[in-house]
Structures are given as C-alpha cells and as structure tokens.
Automatic annotation (TrEMBL):
CDD domains: MupV_like_SDR_e. One of its GO terms (biological process) is long-chain fatty-acyl-CoA metabolic process. GO terms for molecular function: alcohol-forming very long-chain fatty acyl-CoA reductase activity. It comes from Longibacter salinarum. Residues 4-233 form the Thioester reductase (TE) domain. PANTHER family: FATTY ACYL-COA REDUCTASE CG8306-RELATED, MALE STERILITY PROTEIN 2-RELATED. This is 3-beta hydroxysteroid dehydrogenase. It comes from the Bacteria.
Length: 352
C-alpha cells in the first residue's frame, strides 16, 4: 500500500496519478484533513481511483498522526510512503511552520519506523533549506549556520535534518524542488504564487512603463515546472539504488532575474525601462501600499537577488537514459502566461 500526505494538493494529486500508473496493482492510503474530504473524494473520482484509495482523516501535527487505534494497523500495511504535506507560505509565522513542517515530519517518520514492509520513503524537502548560503550548493550538503531568509526555509531545514538523521531506520530518498510553477505543456497550476505575483503585477502596469530592477539583475532565479518534478520523483523513487540519496529538482541552467523579467514582459507585449534599486529598498517598498497594489510580498524579493547556484550533478546522473529533463523557462513561459490570463479566478493563498 502506498501512503501519502499532501493530497488533494496540486503536487499530491499529480503524484498520486503518476504513482497509480506506475504501480497499477497498488492501493493508496491517503492521509487528509477532514476539511478536504469532499474535495479529495471528487479528485479521486476524476482520477478513476475511488476503488483503489482509502481516505483517512488525520493530522500530521498529532504524535499519532490523528490515527488513534488504527495507527499500528495502518503502518503494517505500508510498502511505499511519500510526505508532501507542509506549509509552503514564505510568510508563515515560526510557530505554525514548526508545528506543521518540523513536528509533522517527525510524526510521519515515527509512523514509518513502525512499517515493517516499507521499501522506500520519498520526502519532499526544498532546495531552499540552503537558507542564506551563497555560491554552489551540492545535493549531498545540508548542515550550515548561515541563517535563513524566512521561517519557511528554517522549518523545512530542521525537518530535513530529522529525515536525514533517521535514514538508517527508514529507507529514504529526499527531493529538493526549487520554485514549482505550472505544467510546461499546458501551463496548468492550482494557484498563482511565487513568480505569478510578478506576472500579475506586470499586468497591472501600462504597456510602456518603468519597472524596478532588484539589485544587479544578474542573480539566478530557479523555477521548475510541476511535470518535471513529478516525472523525476516518480522515476527516481522506483530505483532502489537511489535510497539514501538527495536530489535537487532544480533548473541546471536558470535564467537571471533580468532574464526572467525580459521573458515575461516580452510575452505580455510590454516595453519596460528598468530602474535598479537595492534589495533592502525593494523589500521596504513592497511592505507599503505599493506592494499591496502590486500583490508582491516583501519575502519574495529575497529570491530575486540571492547569489546561489544549485548543483544538479547527482540527479542528472540518476535520470540519465530516462528521457526526463528540466526544460528552460523560455520553453514553457508562454504556456504559463496563457494559462494565467485564462484563469484569473485561481487563488494565490497557501492551502493550510
């Protein structure tokens, strides 16, 4: 049985669909919050998996995952497990982030230590556990003392520390995605956050306009389409030799901040003159009515002027021969913009 948290979220839904195709004989145990029950049932029906999945109400912030007397019984049935549930909001308060991301991960690992037939545990971390580190960050590196840009990074870092510390007891593969955007072929996404805030802000400006350029504009901005993340995780978790490894699901050749802005403004048919401002000024500006009008949070600024590069040597080697590659932003940005323009009603808030 495949155990998974984070359903019916956007990543979780796509991952369940991919795993169901890869393991047609397997059933699913999906831990969900009760408030998502109706949505989860609808998604399962759409996927044609109603007969192959059991929805179990629970709560990762509880020591027993909220499973009560079923805890041990369910653990004994699990053969593969994937932990996607987390708070992904850059502005989360530390207390909430710690409770969900750190304590929640610890409770999931505790549960999996009681699963005698567990073959693999896929933990979805984030590339941004690197925090304020600069330069090249490698896939086999984690521990550092350089600090973090926000509580999201800090809590995901401490969660991964827990996971890595329990690898001797739980057969684990760690995945570290960068900023996940819509499908590279369809543009489909579940919410408009991250770089979509920039796209939406640009749409509020006249076609010929001034635009602030954060810092030098030469720093990398790492974006990855959701289909690459799902395809890579689905393939990698099915290879036994990957147990014990960590993989950056990041763009090996990301555009710079200026490159991203030029890609978006060209697609929106805009002519923009850029006014460089220091990142600290940009953060302060986004904390005012200007930021509220544009819909850009101050926390987002940090990701457009941070000198870091995520090495992908291990994941590229592991994916060799699979045909799976991360497309570059110019290849799929037209689909991102087209989908956003046709689906203005989508939310931009995090799903707690």
């Amino acid at each position: 049985m495949i155990f998974l948290t984070g359903f019916p979220g956007f990543l979780g839904t796509r991952f369940v669909r991919a795993l169901a195709e890869q393991h047609p004989e397997s059933s699913f145990l999906l831990l969900i919050q009760p408030k998502f029950d109706a949505q989860a049932r609808g998604v399962l029906q759409d996927l044609g998996l109603t007969d192959r999945a059991e929805l179990v109400h629970g709560d990762i912030t509880e020591p027993d995952l909220g499973l009560g007397t079923r805890h041990d019984e369910l653990a004994e049935q699990v053969t593969r497990a994937f932990h996607l549930a987390a708070v992904y909001d850059l502005s989360i308060p530390r207390e909430i982030g710690w409770k969900v991301n750190v304590d929640g991960t610890r409770h999931v690992v505790d549960f999996l230590e009681q699963a005698p037939d567990l073959e693999v545990f896929g933990y979805i971390s984030t590339a941004y556990v690197s925090g304020k580190r600069t330069g090249v960050v490698r896939e086999d590196e984690l521990v550092h003392d350089t600090g973090f840009k926000n509580f999201y990074e800090e809590t995901k870092y401490h969660a991964e520390v827990i996971v890595q510390g329990r690898m001797d007891a739980v057969p684990t593969i760690i995945f570290r995605p960068a900023v996940v955007v819509g499908d590279s072929e369809t543009g489909e996404t579940a919410k408009f956050d991250g770089p979509y805030f920039i796209l939406k802000a640009l749409q509020k400006l006249p076609p010929v306009t001034l635009m602030t350029r954060i810092g030098s504009g030469t720093r990398e901005v790492n974006l990855v389409p959701v289909d690459y993340v799902i395809d890579a995780m689905t393939y990698l978790q099915n290879q036994e030799e990957n147990i014990g490894k960590t993989f950056h699901l990041t763009d090996p050749n990301p555009l710079t901040t200026q490159g991203v802005m030029e890609t978006f403004t060209e697609l929106l048919d805009m002519k923009v003159a850029y006014v460089p401002i220091p990142p600290a000024v940009a953060r302060a500006l986004m904390s005012t009515g200007v930021g509220r009008f544009l819909g850009i949070s101050p926390e987002l600024i940090d990701y457009f002027d941070h000198p870091v590069h995520y090495d992908t040597s291990d994941v590229e080697n592991a994916l060799k021969g699979s045909g799976i590659r991360c497309p570059r932003l110019p290849e799929y940005a037209p689909n991102m913009v087209d989908f956003m323009q046709k689906h203005a009603e989508l939310r931009s808030d995090a799903m707690y």
